[in-house]
Design goal:
The chain is mainly alpha-helical. The chain is 75% helix and 0% strand. It is built from ten helices and no strands. The protein has helices at 2-22, 27-41, 45-58, 63-79, 83-96, 101-113, 117-130, 135-147, 151-164, 169-185. Helix 9 (151-164) packs antiparallel against helix 10 (169-185). The longest helix is centred in the first third of the chain and has 21 residues, at 2-22. The N and C termini lie far apart (72 Å).
Length: 203
């Protein structure tokens, strides 16, 4: 899964650079971007980011490519357990492109690894806003709510996930589990008949 994710990002970088290079624009920026694309293939992320930054300074159409390069380096940092460096890079990517749901998803996943659930919730909230039709964002956020004992919000996200896919196994099982917990912890109705105490035995 990790290898596939990395390959997708590398492919996206290559295609983005190729499309940009074919368009009219700053030829010097295109040359620098091609060098950055080669650095991506070599997995030299520091060099790639520096080159894409220079290309973006000369032609803003390369800013998206720069954001993706930051995401890829963050992915590499996270694999090496360098979580703070990964968070810093994802912050840079989000600053460049605040509408990229994948960057929020990546950052939230790292925040969950370091048990920073408040920030993870905030990032999944942004991911949902950026791409409300993506079921996994509702499932991840619902998981955090359930983990924290917030059954009401966990159910809201679970229902949202089921609206996207009513047969999603994780969502179906979570709803059943949440309903059982809610039923077990619900207070008795106000008009419920009190249960009489058993009569005391005579001595």
């Amino acid at each position: 899964m990790k290898t596939l994710f990395a390959l997708c990002l590398v492919t996206t970088l290559g295609l983005s650079t190729a499309r940009s290079a074919q368009q009219e624009g700053n030829q010097e920026a295109a040359k620098i971007a091609r060098e950055g694309s080669q650095a991506v293939k070599d997995q030299d992320w520091n060099k790639a980011i520096e080159l894409f930054r220079k290309a973006a300074e000369k032609d803003r159409k390369y800013t998206q490519t720069l954001a993706i390069a930051y995401q890829q380096r963050a992915f590499s940092y996270a694999n090496d357990q360098r979580f703070q460096d990964a968070l810093n890079d994802l912050g840079e990517a989000i600053q460049i492109n605040p509408r990229d749901a994948r960057a929020y998803e990546q950052r939230a996943a790292i925040e969950m690894k370091i048990n920073d659930y408040d920030r993870a919730l905030a990032d999944y909230e942004m991911a949902v806003k950026a791409n409300p039709g993506e079921i996994k964002y509702h499932l991840y956020r619902g998981y955090i709510f359930e983990l924290r004992g917030d059954l009401q919000n966990a159910m809201v996200d679970t229902d949202a996930a089921l609206k996207i896919n009513s047969k999603n196994k994780e969502a179906v099982e979570r709803k059943q589990r949440l309903q059982k917990i809610q039923a077990a912890t619900a207070p008795p109705p106000a008009n419920a008949t009190p249960v009489a105490a058993p009569p005391k035995k005579k001595p």
